[in-house]
Specification:
938 residues; alpha+beta; Rossmann fold; Dna Ligase, domain 1; D-amino Acid Aminotransferase, Chain A, domain 1; 7 domains; 33 strands; repeat; ATP-grasp; pyrimidine biosynthesis; ATP binding; amino-acid biosynthesis
Length: 938
C-alpha cells in the first residue's frame, strides 16, 4: 500500500530530559523518524523539553517546540499548527503516557489528529499488567503465575496464593521503577507499598519470580498488510532477576536452540498481532527455563525501546526510520534496505558477527547507594562492541567502558580476596563480569560459578578460555611469541596493553611494534545486514583480525571526530550533539567526515550521519590504527568530552594533528596548577590555591590558602572526587580517599569562596576575534556543581560591571590559551569581584542549551572555525531570545532512595530540561529568585 497522502503534517512526541531508564536512545529514534518523514515531504513538528539533544535541533525537525511535555503544551501546538497525525512511539514511556492522557481528554478527536505507529488500545493492553496477562492466556502464550492488586489487602492475598519468591511489577512505569523481588514474607509489606506508590494507577502485578531463567528479547516490525519480520534476537548474558537495561546483552542469541527460537518467533508474532492492528515497531521480552526450554512472555512494548537502538546499530537495519514509514502507510516490501539499496526492507537481517552491549554505571556519584542489581534499572549508559566472536566483542566492550580497564582483566586491576569475589558473584553489581574472570583466574571451578550466578555455561566457558590463553602467554617473551598464537590472542580481543601486562617489563608500544613487524594488523569489516549475501553501500565498519580489509580509504581530505563513549553523569548527550554538528560542519566544508564512537544510543553512531562510521572503542589502540589506515588531515577532540580529550596527549606524542586548540594549550587549562599561574600572569582574580601529592602537603597548603577549601583532582569531568572541607581532619580523609580512588593524580586545594554567586561564559575564538556566545547566571551558589545548578540566560541580576568583567576575562583567557574553537569559563562572584574558577577549551554541556535558547548553530560555527575554513567575521550571528531561558537539571534520585539528595561540588544530575519565560515577574522565576536569595544569605 502506498503512503497515506492525507498525512501531510506529523507531530513527534519526545522523551524529555535524560533519566535513568530513559536515555538518549529515544532521541536517536525520534531523530531517525523525523528525518524519515521529512524524506517523504511531510512537515515534522517535535515537542521535547531536552535542549542537549540533536533531536531538538533545526536540522531534524521543521518546527521544534522546546516546551514542557504536557497535554496542555500539545493542545497549544495543535491550536497553532495544522497537525494530521501524532507519532508517540519514539519517545519512550513519557510519550506513550502523554498519548493516553491526551486521548482520554479527547484532544486527538477534537483536533482531528490520527494516532499512528500504535493503537491507543494497544498501549492500554500492554501497560496494564492484568490486561496483558489475560490477553496472553487468551491467545495461548505462557505467562508466570500472577495476580493484580490495587490495594494492600489484595496484594497480601495474591502473595499467599502464589508463594515466594515473588516479583512486584507496578503498571505504567519505566525502567522497572518501583518494582522488586520479594524472597521472604518479612520483605513483602514494604515492597508492595513501594510498588503501589510508584504506579500512577496505584496498581501492581504480584508475580511468580522465575529467578535464574534465561532472558531474551526480539525486535519486530509490522506493516499494514500484517507482514511481520524479526529484526534481531537479543540474549541476556545475565539471567532473569536483573533489569534488561542493567544486563550484558548479546546479539544474535548465542545459546538458544533452533526449535526454541522458532517457537519464540511464532509467539512474538502472535503477541504483536493480538494487541492491535497498528503498523510499526515492537519489542517483546521472553524468559526461558534452561532445564526444559519452557517459554513465558514477560512483556511487550508497542514502541521503540532501548533495545531498538541497539538492534539498529547491531544489524544496520534502521528500525525507527522504517517504523516511521510503516506508520504512514508503506508496506515492508515497498521500502528499500537502507544498506544494500538493492534488497527490500522485508529481508530479515543476518549477522556474521557478534554484538555485545555492556551497561555503564555511576555508583561513585551516589555514596551509600545499594549497588546490587535487580528489577529497577540503575545504569546511566551503555557501550556496544562488534567482533567476529563473542569473546572478542566482550573484550572490546570492556575497553569502551571508560573505567580504566584494558579488556576483561589482565590489566593489574583484579581482585584477590576470594570472599569478596564470591559475594560479588552471588550479589550482582557493576563489576560481576570482572569478578567472574577473577574467580576463574584463582581456580574457582566453572560449575561453582555457574551455580552461584546462573549464567549459561557456554558464556562462562568462553571467559575461561581467556584464562587458559593468559597462562599460555606467560610462557613466552615478546620476541618469541609464535605468530599464530599472537594472532589468536588478538582475535580473542586482547589489547596490546593486556599483552604487555601479562609479559611484564614490556610497554604497549613495544607490543604494537612487534605485532606490526609480524604483519598482525587490524582489518575492518562492513556491517551489511545480510552476511555479505548482497553488496552493501553504506560505509559502517568494525575491526577484527583476519586477512581481508573491507574499508578502503578514499583519496579525499578527511577529518576524524572522536566521540564521547558511553553516557555517564558529567558527560551526557550534549557531547554527542556537538559531535553530530562537527560531522555536519566537516561535510559542509568539503572534508570526508569520519566518526569513531561506541555508544549505540546516539545519533553520531547512525550510519548515515558521517561519511564513514567506525563503531569502535574510543581507546588508544583502536583510534591509532584507524588513523594509520585513513591518514586524516587531523582529529577533532574538542567535541567528545573527556573521553576524546584524554586522547589528545597520545595524539600529540605521535605527531597527529589536533584540529583547533593545541594539546599544550588544552593541557594548561586542564592542569589547574598551570592554569592558575596563567591567571596570575594575566592579572585575573582567582581563588588562592596550592597543589599537593599527599595528605601532609595538603594540610600545609590548606592552612596557607585558608579554610573552607575545595579539594579536587586534576583532569576530571563532572566534578569527580571534589569535596568542600573545613578542617585538617576532614581534609586528610578527603585527600587519602581521593588518591586511593585516582592513584597518580595530584590534588588541588583552592580557597572556597563561601556564599559566592556562580556564573558562566561560553565563547568562540578563531585566534584573532572572540565572540561571546552567552553569559549565564546560576541560581544555586558556588560550591554546587554547575551541571546541578539551574542556569539563567541572559543574567538577570548581575551588574554591568560584573558582566563586563566576565566578557573581558573571557577574551583575555581565550587569546592567552590560543583557543581555536570553543571555550567555557566558570566564575565565582563575591562582593562585585569576579574570580575565575576554571576554563574548558572544548564543548561544554551549556553550549547546546545556549544554541537552542538563542536559535544559533554555535557548534557548527565553532567547528568551521576549528577546521580553519572560516573566521568569525564570516558569520552573521543574530540572537532570537525574548525574555529568559532557564536550564533545569533533572535527577534520578528515585533509583537510589537510600542516598542523600544534597548537592555539592560533584555532579549528580542525569539530564536537563529547558524552560522559557517572558519576564522576571513569572511565578516560576520569582520562586527561583527567592531560592537564590535564600542560598546566598545562609
Amino acid at each position: 500500500m502506498p503512503k497515506d497522502t492525507s498525512i501531510r503534517s506529523v507531530l513527534i512526541i519526545g522523551s524529555g530530559p535524560i533519566i535513568i531508564g530513559q536515555a538518549c536512545e529515544f532521541d536517536y529514534s525520534g531523530s531517525q523518524a523525523a528525518l524519515s518523514l521529512k524524506d517523504e515531504g511531510i512537515e515534522v513538528s517535535i515537542i521535547n523539553s531536552n535542549p542537549a539533544t540533536i533531536m531538538t535541533d533545526k536540522v531534524i525537525g521543521d518546527h521544534v517546540y522546546l516546551w514542557p511535555l504536557t497535554v496542555d503544551s500539545i493542545e497549544q501546538i495543535l491550536q497553532e499548527r495544522k497537525i494530521d497525525a501524532v507519532l508517540p512511539t519514539m519517545g519512550g514511556q513519557t510519550a506513550l503516557n502523554l498519548c493516553i492522557e491526551a486521548d482520554e481528554r479527547g484532544i486527538w478527536e477534537k483536533y482531528g489528529v490520527k494516532v499512528i505507529g500504535v493503537d491507543v488500545a494497544a498501549i492500554e493492553k500492554t501497560e496494564n499488567r492484568e490486561a496483558f496477562r489475560q490477553l496472553m492466556v487468551d491467545i495461548g502464550v505462557g505467562v508466570a503465575k500472577s495476580k493484580i492488586a490495587n490495594s494492600f489487602l489484595e496484594g497480601k492475598e495474591a502473595a499467599q496464593e502464589i508463594g515466594y519468591p515473588l516479583v512486584i511489577r507496578p503498571s505504567y512505569t519505566l525502567g522497572g521503577y518501583g518494582g522488586g523481588f520479594v524472597h521472604k514474607k518479612e520483605e513483602f509489606d514494604q515492597a508492595l507499598k513501594r510498588g503501589l506508590e510508584a504506579s500512577p494507577t496505584h496498581e501492581v502485578l504480584v508475580e511468580q519470580a522465575v529467578l535464574g531463567w534465561k532472558e531474551y528479547e526480539l525486535e519486530l516490525l509490522r506493516d499494514s498488510n500484517d507482514n511481520v519480520i524479526i529484526i534481531c534476537s537479543i540474549e541476556n548474558f545475565d539471567p532473569m532477576g536483573i533489569h534488561t537495561g542493567d544486563s550484558i546483552t548479546v546479539a544474535p542469541a548465542m545459546t538458544l536452540s533452533d526449535r526454541c527460537y522458532q517457537d519464540m518467533r511464532n509467539q512474538a508474532i502472535k503477541m504483536m498481532r493480538a494487541i492491535g492492528n497498528f503498523a510499526g515497531g515492537c519489542n517483546v521480552q521472553f524468559s526461558v527455563n534452561p532445564d526444559n526450554d519452557e517459554i513465558i512472555a514477560i512483556e511487550i512494548n508497542p514502541r521503540v525501546s532501548r533495545s531498538s537502538a541497539l538492534a539498529s546499530k547491531a544489524t544496520g537495519y534502521p528500525i525507527a526510520k522504517i517504523a516511521a514509514k510503516l506508520a504512514i502507510g508503506y508496506n515492508l516490501d515497498e521500502l528499500e534496505n537502507q544498506i544494500t539499496k538493492t534488497t527490500s526492507a522485508y529481508f530479515e537481517p543476518t549477522l556474521d558477527y557478534v554484538i555485545v552491549k555492556v551497561p555503564r554505571w555511576n555508583f561513585d556519584k551516589f555514596k551509600g547507594a545499594n549497588m546490587e542489581l535487580g528489577l529497577q534499572m540503575k545504569s546511566v549508559g551503555e557501550v556496544m562492541a562488534i567482533g567476529r566472536t563473542f569473546i572478542e566483542a566482550l573484550q572490546k566492550a570492556c575497553q569502551s567502558l571508560e573505567i580504566g580497564r584494558a579488556g576483561l582483566g589482565a590489566d593489574g586491576k583484579h581482585k584477590r580476596n576470594i570472599d569478596e569475589i564470591m559475594h560479588g558473584l552471588e550479589h550482582a553489581s557493576w563489576n560481576r563480569l570482572f569478578l567472574i574472570k577473577d574467580a576463574m583466574s584463582m581456580g574457582v571451578p566453572l560449575e561453582s560459578i555457574r551455580k552461584v550466578t546462573r549464567i549459561d555455561k557456554w558464556f562462562l566457558s568462553q571467559i575461561q578460555e581467556l584464562v587458559h590463553l593468559e597462562t599460555e602467554l606467560k610462557r613466552y617473551s615478546l620476541n618469541n611469541i609464535p605468530k599464530d598464537f599472537f594472532f589468536t590472542l588478538k582475535q580473542k580481543g586482547f589489547s596490546d596493553v593486556q599483552i604487555a601486562y601479562l609479559l611484564g617489563n614490556v610497554t604497549e608500544d613495544e607490543v604494537y611494534e612487534r605485532r606490526k613487524s609480524l604483519g598482525i594488523r587490524r582489518v575492518y569489516k562492513m556491517v551489511d545486514t545480510c552476511a555479505a549475501e548482497f553488496a552493501a553501500q553504506t560505509p559502517y565498519y568494525y575491526s577484527t583480525f583476519e586477512e581481508e580489509n573491507e574499508s578502503q580509504p578514499s583519496d579525499r581530505k578527511k577529518i576524524i571526530v572522536l566521540g564521547s563513549g558511553p553516557n555517564r553523569i558529567g558527560q551526557g548527550i550534549e557531547f554527542d550533539y556537538s559531535c553530530v554538528h562537527g560531522l555536519l560542519a566537516a561535510k559542509e566544508s568539503g572534508f570526508e567526515a569520519i566518526m569513531v564512537n561506541c555508544n549505540p544510543e546516539t545519533v553520531s553512531t547512525d550510519f548515515n550521519m558521517a561519511d564513514k562510521l567506525y563503531f569502535e572503542p574510543v581507546f588508544w589502540e583502536h583510534v591509532r590504527e584507524i588513523i594509520e589506515l585513513e591518514k586524516p588531515e587531523g582529529v577533532i577532540v574538542q567535541l567528545g568530552g573527556q573521553t576524546a580529550l584524554k586522547m589528545a596527549e597520545k595524539l600529540h606524542e605521535n605527531g597527529i594533528r589536533i584540529i583547533g586548540t593545541s594539546y599544550n594549550d588544552m593541557d594548561v587549562a586542564e592542569d589547574r596548577g598551570r592554569f592558575s599561574d596563567l591567571l596570575k600572569e594575566l592579572e585575573i582574580p582567582y581563588p588562592k590555591y596550592g597543589v599537593a601529592e599527599n595528605a601532609e602537603e595538603a594540610i600545609v597548603v590548606a592552612n596557607e590558602v585558608g579554610y573552607p577549601v575545595l579539594v579536587r583532582p586534576s583532569y576530571v569531568l563532572g566534578g569527580q572526587g571534589m569535596s568542600i572541607v573545613i578542617n585538617d581532619e576532614d581534609l586528610e580523609k578527603a585527600v587519602v580517599k581521593l588518591l586511593g580512588d585516582l592513584p597518580g593524580n595530584r590534588v588541588l586545594i583552592d580557597h572556597f569562596l563561601d556564599r559566592a554567586e556562580e556564573t558562566e561564559s561560553d565563547s568562540i575564538c578563531d585566534g584573532e576575534d572572540v565572540h561571546i556566545v552567552g553569559l549565564m547566571e546560576h541560581i544555586e551558589p558556588a560550591g554546587i556543581h554547575s551541571g546541578d545548578s539551574s542556569a539563567v540566560l541572559p543574567p538577570f541580576s548581575l551588574s554591568e560591571k560584573v558582566m563586563n568583567d566576565m566578557e573581558v576575562y573571557s577574551k583575555k583567557i581565550a587569546k592567552a590559551l590560543n583557543v581555536i574553537g570553543l571555550l567555557n569559563i566558570q566564575f565565582a562572584v563575591k562582593d562585585e569581584k569576579v574570580y575565575v574558577i576554571e576554563a574548558n577549551p572544548r564543548a561544554s554541556r551549556t553550549v547546546p542549551f545556549i544554541a537552542k535558547a538563542y536559535d544559533v548553530p554555535y557548534i557548527n560555527i565553532a567547528a568551521k572555525v576549528m577546521l580553519g575554513v572560516n573566521k568569525l567575521k564570516d558569520f552573521t550571528i543574530e540572537r532570537k531570545l525574548e525574555g529568559y531561558a532557564i536550564k533545569e537539571p533533572v535527577f534520578s534520585f528515585n533509583k537510589f532512595p537510600e542516598v542523600t539528595k544534597e548537592l555539592g561540588p560533584e555532579m549528580k544530575s542525569t539530564g536537563e530540561a529547558i524552560r522559557f519565560i517572558r519576564n522576571t515577574e513569572d511565578p516560576y522565576f520569582r520562586q527561583l529568585y527567592k531560592d537564590k536569595s535564600m542560598y546566598l544569605s545562609k
